[in-house]
Write a structure and sequence with these properties.
This protein has about 425 residues and is of the alpha/beta class. Among the domains are: about 45-140; about 220-405. Helix content is about 15%, strand content about 40%. The strands form 2 sheets. The chain has a 28-stranded mixed β-sheet that branches. Strands 1, 2, 3, 4 and 5 form a 5-stranded antiparallel β-sheet that branches. The longest helix is centred in the N-terminal third of the chain and has 61 residues, at about 15-75.
Length: about 425
């Protein structure tokens, strides 16, 4: 500065002096501008980095929201709580992390997700955190394992005096009717079930054990609606039954009207039966393992008759009923593979005829009974054991002293929730 003052005094009255001063002032201005630009560029670079890191943390938080929503609705329906930190990687390199908390109030879920860059454990001095929230409503679907009744109105479950229905701990009774008496349990009747889910209500004068939900708001649909409906043309006409003892009376060929006469033992051949098939009293009917039987005129199993088969499917595809008379039984297991894996009896929605289990009759049905538009009736003293994954009817009636046991052990080709 001293030199500058001397220089100013020396040249203050000369043109050369003013020129030097102007040059020096110009250099000061230029230098100041350069330093300002450098400082601004430094700030701009820092700001850009902060914004970039914030954007990365935001992306992590949004990933957390997405995963939490999927987890609640798909992976573990109805879950709520706090997750651990989840690292996000790309090409083997960690690019951030997130965690989330899910809170539940009724059917409303609130997700709070925190995104971190570079990660949660980094010192706060270097860590960027972004928080995002999301609220949605969700009704947890009830498992369809057990029995699904699809009638939209009226009483779908009727248990008369001393009737019993017992479901194992993994099976449920799902009732689609909106009626206030969609389920009716009489005095001394007993229903034991894991979950009883009713769109409407219940009239209960007996005993019901299990979790009961009335006014169920979840969606109740046919669990097997996507499975192709079998048709008569899919199957060739059945051959004449093989008689071990006794006799049969059949029309032209085994596939026409056919009666297995009393006290006979026969093997019924798989295929299509165009008219009613009757198994008379005290007969034993053996079905061919792996066989599919398509009945267009219904099936009657008369008193003291027994029908047995493994790995078989019965299709009641016409308009006729399936009727199991007093003291008779139907004991079959389902196919273990193919489209109709796990199905024992398939009655399409076009057939509205009742599936009737009469007094002192019954049996064990190893696979699904599927009759979405038909009533199922177990008469007085009848007993039926269902082992199929999800049995579907329009409605269900258990008369006095009837007994129903539901213990799903076989699975179908469909994935049920």
């Amino acid at each position: 500065m001293k030199n500058f003052k001397k220089l100013f005094r020396k040249y203050k009255f000369s043109n050369n002096g003013f020129t030097v001063i102007y040059i020096m002032l110009f250099l000061v201005v230029i230098t100041t501008g350069i330093f300002s630009m450098i400082e601004m560029q430094g700030k701009s670079s820092t700001d850009n980095k902060v914004e970039g890191d914030r954007g990365k943390a935001k992306a992590m938080a949004l990933s957390g929201l997405q995963e939490a929503t999927y987890y609640v609705q798909q992976t573990s329906p109805g879950w709520y709580g706090t997750s651990s930190e989840q690292a996000v990687t790309a090409n083997g390199v960690t690019i951030g992390s997130y965690d989330y908390t899910v809170a539940k109030s009724g059917s409303t879920y609130t997700v709070t997700a925190n995104g971190y860059y570079p990660n949660k454990t980094t010192s706060d001095k270097y860590k960027v955190t972004y928080t995002a929230t999301k609220t949605f409503t969700y009704t947890v679907p009830i498992s369809q394992k057990g029995i699904v009744l699809l009638g939209a109105t009226g009483t779908l479950v009727t248990e008369a005096t001393n009737a019993t229905a017992t479901f194992n701990s993994s099976s449920n009774l799902i009732v689609a009717s909106s009626s206030s008496t969609a389920v009716s349990i009489a005095k001394n009747a007993n229903l034991t079930v894991n979950n009883l889910e009713i769109v409407g209500g219940i009239s209960n004068s007996g005993t019901v054990s299990g979790t009961i939900t009335t006014g169920y708001s979840g969606t109740i649909t046919d669990p097997y609606s996507s499975i192709p409906v079998p048709t008569a043309s899919d199957y060739s006409t059945a051959a004449v039954p093989t008689v071990t003892s006794g006799s049969i009376t059949c029309g032209s060929g085994g596939g026409s009207a056919c009666t297995v006469n009393s006290n006979s033992v026969v093997t019924l051949q798989p295929g299509r039966y165009t008219s009613a098939v009757t198994f008379s009293s005290k007969t034993t009917i053996n079905l061919v393992s792996g066989g599919v039987y398509y009945f267009e005129g219904g099936i009657s199993i008369n008193s003291n008759a027994q029908v047995n088969g493994t790995n078989v499917l019965l299709i009641n595809g016409g308009a006729g009923a399936l009727n199991i008379a007093s003291n008779s039984g139907l004991n079959i297991t389902p196919p273990s593979s193919g489209t109709y894996q796990g199905f024992s009896i398939y009655q399409p929605s076009t057939n509205t005829s009742t599936l009737q289990i009469n007094s002192n009759s019954g049996g064990q049905i190893g696979g699904v009974i599927y009759a979405p538009n038909a009533p199922a009736v177990v008469s007085s003293n009848g007993a039926l054991v269902l082992k199929g994954e999800s049995n579907v009817f329009k409605n269900l009636t258990l008369n006095s002293n009837a007994a129903l046991t539901v213990t799903p052990t076989s699975s179908t080709s469909m994935a049920l929730n």
